[in-house]
Write a structure and sequence with these properties.
This protein is an alpha/beta fold and 282 residues long. 26% of the residues lie in helices and 24% in strands. About 5% of the residues have low confidence.
Length: 282
């Protein structure tokens, strides 16, 4: 796919040439988004598994605006038109990340007549996967991620003063609610010192279940009440460098309840850490 390079505003410095921060949408641009047609940019390879996943997720979950599936060439010809908004994958690298890992973000952008993609109003951006990873690693969570993006867009359209919620750390204000929910966790997404029931119980008093992909898929599809899935993005469980992104998303309300990221090292492996459990236990 022709993925697009774009600055994503986190606490790292980007290593590519776009240096301007993608702007928050203004109140007028939020109104434009609400009245727009959302164009979902597909891979050029028509047999792409990503295309299958994003089509299914959009058709099943996207309700806030009319939508259409388009090519990257269509995106280039339409992106300056505020009548359109766009859901697309972008690639990001970080100067602090010496591993050189490329991360995919799922972006919701509003059309605007600007020269650079990085200057288009960014309604929301969520880490989705590491470049080169098997599509199966994120495909089963795509419905939950897309539902969160839609939920986020709906909220700021109702109250444009909340555009700062684009920074996902804002959602940590909801973390005290986590203990009232049931965490659905894959063992491979957990750090080694918290990858069993006994180890987790030693640091976290709330309810949780270590499950497989099938249980998570079912919870997302059925919008299971009171459950949170862990969306973890990182190079691999054996990595000693790179960035690990961690998000807890509700399957019934598409709410993000926790967001964090850390630099991977021998001390802090790629996975949900004991320190993350301790934070949501507070």
């Amino acid at each position: 796919m022709r993925k697009f390079w774009m600055f994503i505003a986190l606490w790292f410095f980007v290593s590519f040439s776009i240096t301007a921060q993608a702007p928050f949408p203004s109140a007028d641009e939020i109104k434009q988004f609400v009245n727009s047609k959302t164009c979902v940019v597909l891979e050029a390879n028509t047999m792409s598994v990503y295309n299958t996943y994003i089509r299914k997720a959009i058709n099943g979950y996207w309700k806030i605006t009319p939508f259409e599936f388009i090519t990257s060439d269509d995106f280039e010809s339409r992106r300056n038109d505020p009548a359109y908004s766009f859901i697309l994958l972008t690639e990001t690298k970080y100067e602090k990340d010496k591993s050189g890992t490329v991360y995919y973000f799922l972006n919701l952008l509003q059309g605007k007549n600007v020269e650079e993609i990085g200057k288009m109003p960014e309604v929301c951006a969520v880490p989705l996967a590491v470049a080169g990873v098997d599509d199966l690693e994120y495909g089963y969570k795509l419905g939950a991620v897309l539902s969160f993006i839609q939920n986020h867009a709906l909220r700021i359209s109702e109250n444009p003063s909340l555009t700062g919620r684009r920074y996902l750390r804002f959602y940590n204000s909801y973390s005290p609610e986590v203990k009232k929910k049931v965490l659905l966790l894959r063992k491979e997404d957990l750090a080694p010192d918290v990858n069993t029931d006994e180890k987790i119980k030693a640091v976290y008093p709330g309810k949780f279940e270590i499950v497989g992909d099938e249980e998570i898929i079912r919870a997302v599809q059925e919008k299971a009440e009171g459950k949170l899935i862990l969306h973890k993005v990182g190079p691999s469980e054996n990595s000693t460098s790179g960035i690990c992104f961690k998000m807890l998303i509700g399957t019934d309300d598409a709410q993000m309840y926790y967001y964090n990221e850390h630099m991977i090292s021998k001390t802090y492996p790629d996975g949900f850490l004991s320190s993350d459990f301790k934070r949501i236990a507070e």
